[in-house]
Specification:
184 residues; alpha+beta; Porin; globular; OMP/PagP_B-barrel; signal; Outer membrane protein beta-barrel domain-containing protein
């Protein structure tokens, strides 16, 4: 567990350097959001076994508002579906999570690393309905002035009460996504 924390902190600490290294060429070019802009992004993933009898699908959508050029506040909705066949457990499961997030973006170039946090709920057939908190780090690359490709890694931990939130940190899970987004 300590090794995972050290690795996560090292990655997070290096993100601003990526932005600062790229800052010179794009500054003032109109790339990225301005104060008051909204942002929508969508990402997804899926998997299946070779005969396509069992598999899963996940879709996540984000909607955010830039309160400054660097801070975005928003809501993130994820929906997950899994179909398990050919085992002692044969069933379909639906899960979801809804969480509010706050992210701080570094730099003004086409490369925009960010750090943030989220808080929300997870619910559905395959999980126990509970609260979740998360720390997140990611990178956006603007392919057009208001269109970007993003990667996000979240470390989430789950709790049923505020007393448990601190105790459950070591039993969390990593969530990764790659998506496409737009500022408007």
């Amino acid at each position: 567990m300590l090794r995972n924390r050290v690795l996560a902190l090292a990655i997070i600490a290096s993100l601003p350097a990526v932005s600062l290294a790229q800052e010179g060429g794009m500054q003032g070019s109109g790339v990225g959001p301005t104060v008051g802009d909204r942002e929508f992004s969508i990402s997804g993933s899926g998997n299946s076994e070779q005969d396509f009898d069992s598999g899963s699908l996940s879709v996540t959508g984000d909607l955010g508002w830039y309160v400054t050029e660097r801070w975005v506040l928003g809501i993130r909705q994820s929906v997950n579906y899994a179909s398990i066949q050919g085992t002692s457990i044969e069933d379909d499961f639906w899960n979801g999570s809804t969480r509010g997030f706050a992210d701080y973006h570094f730099g003004r170039s086409a490369w925009r690393p960010f750090l943030g946090a989220n808080l929300g709920l997870v619910y559905g057939d395959g999980v126990e309905d509970t609260g979740l908190a998360g720390l997140e780090a990611g990178l956006k690359y603007y392919v057009l002035p208001k269109t970007f490709i993003s990667g996000l890694a979240e470390y989430q931990w789950f709790f049923e009460s505020s007393d448990e939130a601190d105790d459950q940190f070591d039993d969390g899970a990593w969530v990764y996504s790659v998506g496409l987004g737009f500022n408007f």
